[in-house]
């Protein structure tokens, strides 16, 4: 259930960057010269023609205020504490023009990106990452990440992504990797051939994903090896091929994935044909748990998913264990809860609160919470048939205008050291219409 990964063991994201308009990532640093006088607020295009140029003159904890326009840039953010704010979410557009790898890449602590659109990149719309060597941003490849050294690559600390529209990006719309103490809120992601929103490779993540819409992606929301204090609450993951996944993945550090709270989300109708294909052929699945452990799914609406509402599976030698499903509303799924784990890596300790009409595959799954190995079917046994062919990420329909922030020119306070998580006691099963009026 994990998404596509890049073939090189360590791929520099800025390959092919040289010579492209607005490309500011990975260039050789200029020779040392006189100290630059940096400003607390830099306006684009009034004070600087591009976002990249504005970052060269903004102070730490300052503000880059971006006016309406289309910005064909690949922006690297290495100024700590800076806020990049569009004046209008719909009219401030950073574009990769279908040829640049990324839109906005952040490698500094305490950065906020808000109230703008990032589109048409070949890999990443907005990427926050703690894995980089200088200005070279690195990503794990197919040979695994066993040599990952946390001391060498400490996590990026404190980030905020707010009212960002990420559309038609080649792999990921919004991507937080090796990060902690962050918020992804009130954003939109569509047209991603891997996942619309991705949080990966962190322990004690202290991250909240809330109020977002992910639709018409291969996977709406994906978690690979992001564990502990990660709260996914009040989102709409609807109209994708797979609504959301919680997975363990040996291509990244910190296996196994564990300990997320998934509450009050709408995970519905994930069998959208006008979307890019999912790398593993995923289709018609609401929530896929692949080697995920000790996650809590509480009071979500999981409905209309053609094959399965929640699918448990194993990943290599990592079983899905100890996951609890409590108080969720299941409706109109091919089957509500299914287990397709391998015989060699059986699921165990996954407990589902019974409700009227709840269906399971195998049917005895609901009675096996305390069994050392829970009964399993196969993916081929699921109803709903095979996935149809996908479309290019660049062909996915765009959303309409989306709500903007009131974009003043005030410099915000620095981001807090820790994140406030929602109170689970206040979370209810959402209405099917949650966030449906957007786009």
UniProtKB/TrEMBL annotation:
Transmembrane segments: none annotated. Residues 1-21 form the signal peptide. Keywords: Signal. PROSITE patterns: PROKAR_LIPOPROTEIN. InterPro entries: NosD_dom (IPR007742), PbH1 (IPR006626), Pectin_lyas_fold (IPR012334), Pectin_lyase_fold/virulence (IPR011050). Residues 80-276 form the Periplasmic copper-binding protein NosD beta helix domain. This is Periplasmic copper-binding protein NosD beta helix domain-containing protein. It comes from Nocardioides humi.
